[in-house]
Design brief:
Number of domains: 1
Oligomer: single chain
Order of helices and strands: HHHEHEHEEHEHHEHHE
CATH superfamily: Vaccinia Virus protein VP39
Distance between the termini: 31 Å
CATH architecture: 3-Layer(aba) Sandwich
CATH class: Alpha Beta
Strand order of the largest sheet: 3-2-1-4-5-7-6
Largest sheet: 7 strands, mixed
Shape: globular
Number of strands: 7
Length: 236
């Protein structure tokens, strides 16, 4: 049986939980800001987005460069159908824990996916087989038990302990190039404590959007050396 039989229905999660977080969520906006600086520092002309969702990160990965080959992977058929309408490229509906696509890409990218995967080691092994130069990942660190109420709503099965992901990446055959722990103090722990008492919803009111904008500006004060958002650039 595929591992995907044991994980949430991500078609339903896109409809009921995720909503416009990719566009309006202050954490997602800062993730893109951090990633923009990293991708500008590396050379690649092919990219694979693992866990591509609705394709929100593809403009960031392709901006300002000639990318000759783009591909995406997601477990959600709804996500694949949506992103295929806007990008004429190669998308695959599959579970990265179980399988991979043939070929290698200069940059394999995966944002906020690993925390959803029961078998992240298998996923990293599959990503390693498809990586030609670089792997760039973002995920969630911190105390899973402390934030379990929120994390489980989001479909998370783990938060990474300090050094855990780095060790797994090296065992998969990657070499660490850059590691960023971001978020202290306004995202982690303050915002995460607040999230833990909330119910996740795909709908956002005017008030929610205003609060999100205020949090976005406060988050510029967050540390890049401490916090629960983990960004890692690795090479092969």
């Amino acid at each position: 049986m595929s591992r995907s039989a044991n994980v949430p229905d991500y078609d339903e999660m896109w409809n009921q939980v995720y909503g416009d977080r990719e566009h309006r969520g202050p954490v997602h906006r800062h993730i893109r800001r951090i990633l923009r600086g990293i991708v500008r520092s590396i050379e690649y002309d092919s990219v694979l987005d693992v866990g591509c969702g609705f394709g929100d990160n593809l403009p960031l990965l392709c901006d300002g460069r000639r990318v000759r080959r783009i591909a995406g992977i997601d477990i959600s058929q709804q996500a694949i159908d949506h992103v295929s309408k806007n990008w004429r490229t190669d998308f695959h509906q599959l579970d990265i824990q179980d399988t991979r696509v043939d070929g290698r890409w200069d940059l394999v990218f995966s944002s906020l996916l690993l925390e959803h995967l029961p078998d992240d080691v298998a996923a990293l092994d599959n990503m390693r087989a498809m990586t030609g130069r670089y792997l760039l990942v973002t995920t969630i660190a911190g105390d899973f038990e402390r934030y379990k109420a929120w994390d489980e709503q989001m479909g998370h099965v783990r938060n990474y302990a300090v050094g855990e992901l780095e060790t797994k990446l090296m065992k998969a055959g990657f070499h660490l190039q850059q590691v960023i722990h971001w978020g202290f103090p306004f995202y982690s722990p303050l915002s995460r404590i607040l999230q833990n008492s909330m119910k996740a919803s795909s709908t956002s009111s005017v008030r929610t959007r205003l609060v999100a904008d205020i949090m976005y500006y406060a988050y510029f004060l967050n540390s890049r050396k401490r916090g629960d958002l983990l960004v890692v650039l690795a090479s092969v």
